[in-house]
Amino acid sequence: MSVLAANPVPGQPAPTGDAGIAVRLRGVTKTYGKGPTAVQAVRGVDLDLPANQLALLVGPSGCGKTTLISIITGVLDATEGTAEVFGNEWTRMSPGRRAKVRATLVGFVFQQFNLLPTLPAVENVAVPLLIQRTGRREALKRARQALDGVGLGNRAGAMPSQLSGGQQQRVAIARALVARPRVLVCDEPTASLDGNTGRQVMDLIKAASRGSESEPRLVIVVTHDARVFHYADMIYRMEDGRITSMAPPDEIDHAKAQHEDTRRRPT
Ligand code: ADP
Ligand code: MG
After folding, report:
1. Is 64 touching ligand 1 by the criterion CB < 6 Å?
2. Spatial CB neighbours of 2, under 8 Å, sequence gap ≥ 6
3. CA 162 – ligand 2 centroid, Å
């Protein structure tokens, strides 16, 4: 199996050395269960994701995308192999240390916005800071700034039910970014949104992928949505537990890719 190394991206210098690598996977496999009913969800993945990019992970339902990003983010243990994020190797950490590192290193956005319905937007956004024991005043101040950053500074007091789907997803993005994580992982972030709203959300997600040399970042988006392919720096295709190709969006036949994924999705 070949290592999918940090490919140069058109218009950008190729990352050099370790500093340019955000995620490094080596020989990662994941098997759920044991014996005859065991499911091999990830089958020997070697992958380097360069920093300061938006990486798209695409592929048919059941091919292992959620399992792979769960391993990358230390939510799930690989059965074999190693997973490293900006030099942090999950398998070497105790569970407590791992939870702490994850809280500061990774932000998550999901298709279902998962806002707490009884809290106003600003308090939803403050939750990750409060969990990290930031003082309440400071947490709310930073939450307001994060809401400003997604264009919702004027809706800080709104309850989730008073916000549109697109606004709720922007609140979820503010919550994911409030603790300034180095890695943002989004699982189908636009699947519940119309085209226009999806674009607003992807613009914010794209902006979050641009860090600096001293503070590099990475965004990984899992999606079936061909409308967002052009936001990617690199599109990684997964099939049957393996990464089968990587290509920048202008080399991908979007219509064909979406058709294949739709066709292969179980009904
Ligand atoms: P995707 O996100 O691409 O749809 P998943 O990573 O969710 O794929 O699933 C990959 C495979 O692993 C599928 O066959 C799925 O049924 C199986 N799987 C996922 N989670 C579990 C689990 N907790 N227990 C057993 N099998 C699982
Ligand atoms: Mg999934």
Report:
1. yes
2. 46
3. 28
The pLDDT tens digits for 177-236 are 999 999 999 999 999 889 899 999 999 999 999 998 889 999 999 998 888 999 999 999
Closest C-alpha to 132, from 94, 100, 175: 100
Q: Tell me how far the alpha carbon of residue 64 lies from the centroid of ligand 1, in angstroms.
A: 6
Instruction: Grade residue 15 by pLDDT with cuts at 50, 70 and 90.
Output: very low
Pocket probe for ligand 1: among 63, 67, 79, the residue whose CB has the most ligand atoms within 8 Å is 67
**7 or 218, greater pLDDT:** 218
Give the C-alpha separation, 56 to 153, whole Å.
29
Please name the helix (run of DSSP H) or strand (run of DSSP E) that holds residue 48, with its range, or none: strand 39-50
- Does any ligand 1 atom lie closer than 6 A to the CB of residue 50? no
